[in-house]
Every structure is written in C-alpha cells, then in structure tokens.
C-alpha cells in the first residue's frame, strides 16, 4: 500500500485539534520568550537602579567621611572652643546635618546644642562605623544615617538626615522600589524605618553591597505580576505574536484541508474504514422473492458525504487498493449477515465484484474461505462478478485460482455482459456460472426492438451454454414481465435500491422469508 497514515488529519475534529495545537504551541513559546526577555529587562533595570543609588549613597557618605576627618583634630578640646568649627562643617559639607564629638562612649559636644551629654551605643554601629537610626537628639522618629570615625577612645559622629536618604532612594523609576540596609535595619524610599527585614513582594529583586561602606542597596519592581505587567507594557509585542500565531494556524488549517492525491486519499479512507457495503436485492423472475443480493461499495466520506463507486473504483483498481477495500467490504457483510443467517433462505446468493488485481495472488482464495466459514453449509452461495475494466489474463496462476475457487463452491459471474470485448473471451477461458445482462439493453425493452433481439440472443446463448441468467437494471413492470421465465433472476430499482447492509437485513430478509413480495415501481436514480 503506497500510503498508510496513522491518523487522518482531514477529519474535522483532528484537523481542529492540530490547528489549535499549531496556534497554542507558538503562542505559548512566544509568550514565554517575551516574558523571559521582559524579566531580563526588569532585572537589568533593577541592577542599574541599585548601582546608581549606590553611587549616590557612597558619594554622600564620602562627604560625611570628609566632615569626620576635618573634625578629628578637635577631639579633646573644650566644646566652646570648637563649636563654631563644627557648625562650619555642617554649613560647608554637603548632606551633613550635624557633627558630634564623643569620648568614652558618650557624646559631649554637638553642632546643634553645643555642650551636650548623651550616651551612644558603639556596639550598634555596623563594623563600628555606620548606623541607621530612627531617633536623634534633634528629632524623634525621624531616620538618620550616622558615620563614626574613632581616634583612641574618642570619636567623631557625623549625621546625614533621612530626608536626603529618601531623596536618593526615590530618584529612580517610580515602578522601582529601592531600600537601604545597614546592620539589619532598613529604610525605604518613603522614609519608613524598619528594625528588621520587611516583607517584600517586588519582582526582579537585586541586592548590591558597597565595597567601601557596610551597607546594602536592594532594588526591585513594585509589580503584582510580571505577566500582567507584560500585558500592560508589552501589549504591542503580544499583539504581533497573536497575529502571527493566528496566521500560522490558518495556514495549517488550510494545508490540512487540501485534497491529497487520489491514491493517498483512498488509502486514508481505507484505514479509516470509510468504505461501506450497500446491498441490492436479487429476485427470482417467476416468484419475485429475494434469493440473493449484489454487494456494492460506497465511500462514506467525512466531508463530501456518500460518493458513488464510479468516482473512485477505477483509481482503486489502478492502484491495487481495490483488493484490501473488497476485503473490508466482505468482512463487514460477512459479520452482519452471519449474525442473521437464520433469516436467510438456503442457497442465498451474495455477489461481490472483483477485478484482475484480485487474481495476482491467493489472497482472494483466503478471503473467500474466511467469508464462507461464517455461515452454515448450504446457507449462502458466494458469487464473484468479473468486471471488464481490466483485462484478465488466463495464465496458469489465474486458472489454478479459479479452479480452487470452484472447488470451494464459489461461483463466477460475468457482470455487464455484452458491453465489453472480453466477455466472450472469458466464456471460453474460464468456468463461468452466470451471465448478468447489462442494464443498457434491459432499459430499452418495450421501446426498441433491436435491444429486445439482443437480449433474446444473449438469453439463447446462455441457455445453450447452460448458464444462469440475471437481468440488471429492471426498473419497470413491463421489463419484468417480458423477462419472466426467460432469465433466472432480476435485479433493479423495481425490486429495491442499494441500501446499507443492516437496513437490507431488516427489510429484505423479512420479505425473503415471506411467501410473496409486494413490488412498487420506482423512478430510476444513479447507482
């Protein structure tokens, strides 16, 4: 078989599923890529903001360190003598709020109050040099940053006001949150002081420690969800991605719906079991009781509906797919009718069409054995109808195949007799049991005397050869009356149209068991 798909992508549900997958997969991967890139950008922004804040913070502390160096020579001198110098440092050095002198763990002179005695905890200073506090002698509940420079048991403590700190922390993008950490104490950009690590849900967080001072800057984005912010701030990119995925999915939908080559489409339909059997009754010409049926193949396409055999059988025969297609039909008919064989009259004829492709090996013989094994002996007669679309060569293999089929009880019928050049050749070379007179001759009975003469000649030929005769395409009562007694069986719309196998069993088998059959004349329609 040239084509054997594991699944049928033209089926609507599978086609829709694949199309949705082709939309969802690029959309998901693209969204993840955009999200990853967006997170990288957020992280880069956090790093940049932390570095910029650290630079400003170190610059500010550098000024405080300068004030400390300038005040160190004043240690040990009376407060009254150095007060003006201390206040000069506050006035001249940027960011400095106050300069204080201390010895033996106590501040004794400040640029604010002059002589002033107040203990201060040296152990609270990170690395003995930096303290983030919240209460000073000048202002309660107001953050400050103190820088200490010691000289023996004395020290200079310079204070930087919290307003300066908040200003520096607030210089970055409003969507960023930046915090200062010194010795386990924290200060945010709004000036809020925390004596323990605060809970923070910011995204793309980074921490940057100073190489010069014992402090850390933490930066991050104040966003509840990176996906929501991506939708808000990168909506154009998402729209482009969505448009691309929709276009890609549309192309995939179109490609999956494109027609395949005829052979590949037949192979797909075979695997999907879309070929279904339709049965047309065969009636005895004298009693008009159902004595058999011809099995006709139809294609139940998922989108095109029921397809006539003349539109696909020639391609199936040319590709060799007709063999497994016929096997599928034989299996279906055998399974259904074997389950209801009690309703079948004895010697019920069941005919299948075969072509030259069936005679190239012994597969047909095995399929016939499989079919007959389903029924009780004498219940059915299997008839193989030879078509003339392909020339059947009487080589030794074909002759031996037909001999074994004959020994199995399988009968051979010439279908559409009189329309092809090979009919008489077949009669000479093969053991034929039955002739089926083509409907093109039967349809002219009563309207054209020449056709009646041809039918009479065929009937005479069949009688001389001892062959059973079947008239195909009987559609009027006049045709049936003319043929009564001249042929063994009649077949046509007058007695029944081709119907699905289960419908045939429900309707025609009941009539086959009844003593008489009521016949209604019907208008012909394409087979």
Write up this protein.
The chain has 527 residues and is α+β, with helices and mostly antiparallel strands. It has two domains: 194 residues, Beta-Lactamase, CATH 3.30.450; 183 residues, TIM Barrel. The chain is built from 15 helices and 21 strands. The strands form three sheets. It has an eight-stranded mixed β-barrel with strand order 12-13-15-16-17-18-19-20, surrounded by six helices. A six-stranded antiparallel sheet has the order 3-2-1-6-5-4. It has a five-stranded antiparallel sheet with strand order 9-8-7-11-10. A hairpin with a 5-residue loop joins strand 12 and strand 13. Helix 1 packs antiparallel against helix 5 and helix 8 packs parallel to helix 9. The radius of gyration is 50 Å and the shape is rod-shaped. The two termini are 28 Å apart.
Quick structural summary:
The chain has 527 residues and is an alpha+beta fold. It has helices at 12-71, 79-92, 162-169, 226-233, 235-257, 262-271, 313-319, 322-338, 363-372, 396-408, 423-429, 439-442, 449-465, 477-483, 501-513, and strands spanning 96-103, 106-110, 114-119, 130-133, 144-151, 154-161, 176-182, 185-188, 193-194, 203-209, 216-221, 275-284, 290-301, 305-307, 348-354, 380-386, 411-417, 434-437, 468-471, 489-490, 499-500.
């Amino acid at each position: 078989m040239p084509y054997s798909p594991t699944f049928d992508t033209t089926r609507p549900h599978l086609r829709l599923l694949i199309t949705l997958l082709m939309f969802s997969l690029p959309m998901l991967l693209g969204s993840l890529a955009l999200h990853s890139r967006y997170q990288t950008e957020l992280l880069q922004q956090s790093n940049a903001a932390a570095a910029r804040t650290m630079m400003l913070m170190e610059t500010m502390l550098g000024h405080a360190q300068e004030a400390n160096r300038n005040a160190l020579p004043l240690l040990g001198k009376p407060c009254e003598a150095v007060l003006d110098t201390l206040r000069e440092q506050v006035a001249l050095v940027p960011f400095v709020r106050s300069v204080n002198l201390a010895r033996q763990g106590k501040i004794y002179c400040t640029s604010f109050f002059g002589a002033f005695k107040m203990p201060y905890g040296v152990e609270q200073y990170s690395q003995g040099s930096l303290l983030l506090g919240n209460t000073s002698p000048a202002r309660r509940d107001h953050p400050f940053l103190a820088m200490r420079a010691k000289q023996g048991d004395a020290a200079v403590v310079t204070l930087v006001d919290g307003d300066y700190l908040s200003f520096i922390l607030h210089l970055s993008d409003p969507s960023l949150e930046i915090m200062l950490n010194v010795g386990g104490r924290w200060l945010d950009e709004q000036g809020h002081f925390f004596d323990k690590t605060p809970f923070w849900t910011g995204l793309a967080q980074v921490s940057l420690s100073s190489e010069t001072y014992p402090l850390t800057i933490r930066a991050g984005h104040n966003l509840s969800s990176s996906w929501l912010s991506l939708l808000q701030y990168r909506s154009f990119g998402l729209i482009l991605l969505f448009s691309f995925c929709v276009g890609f999915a549309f192309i995939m939908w179109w490609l999956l719906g494109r027609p395949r080559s005829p052979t590949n489409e037949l192979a797909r339909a075979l695997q999907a079991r879309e070929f279904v059997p339709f049965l047309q009754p065969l009636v005895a010409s004298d009693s008009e009781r159902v004595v058999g049926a011809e099995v006709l193949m139809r294609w139940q396409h998922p989108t095109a509906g029921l397809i006539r055999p003349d539109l696909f059988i020639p391609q199936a025969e040319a590709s060799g797919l007709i063999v497994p297609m016929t096997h599928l039909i034989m299996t279906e008919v055998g399974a259904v009718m074997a389950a209801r064989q009690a309703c079948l009259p004895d010697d019920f004829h069941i005919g299948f069409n075969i072509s030259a492709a069936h005679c190239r090996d012994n597969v047909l013989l095995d399929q016939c054995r499989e079919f007959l094994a389903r029924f009780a002996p004498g219940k059915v007669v299997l008839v193989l109808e030879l078509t003339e679309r392909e020339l059947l060569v009487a080589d030794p293999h074909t002759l031996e195949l037909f001999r074994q089929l004959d020994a199995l009880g399988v009968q051979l019928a010439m279908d559409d007799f009189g329309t092809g050049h090979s009919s008489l050749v077949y009669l000479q070379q093969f053991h034929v049991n039955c002739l089926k007179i083509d409907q093109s001759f039967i349809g002219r009975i009563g309207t054209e005397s020449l056709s009646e003469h041809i039918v009479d000649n065929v009937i005479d030929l069949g009688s001389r050869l001892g062959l059973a005769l079947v008239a195909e395409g009987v559609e009027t009562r006049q045709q049936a009356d003319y043929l009564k007694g001249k042929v063994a069986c009649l077949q046509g719309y007058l007695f029944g149209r081709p119907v699905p196998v289960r419908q045939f069993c429900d309707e025609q088998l009941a009539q086959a068991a009844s003593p008489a059959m009521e016949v209604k004349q019907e208008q012909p329609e394409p087979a």
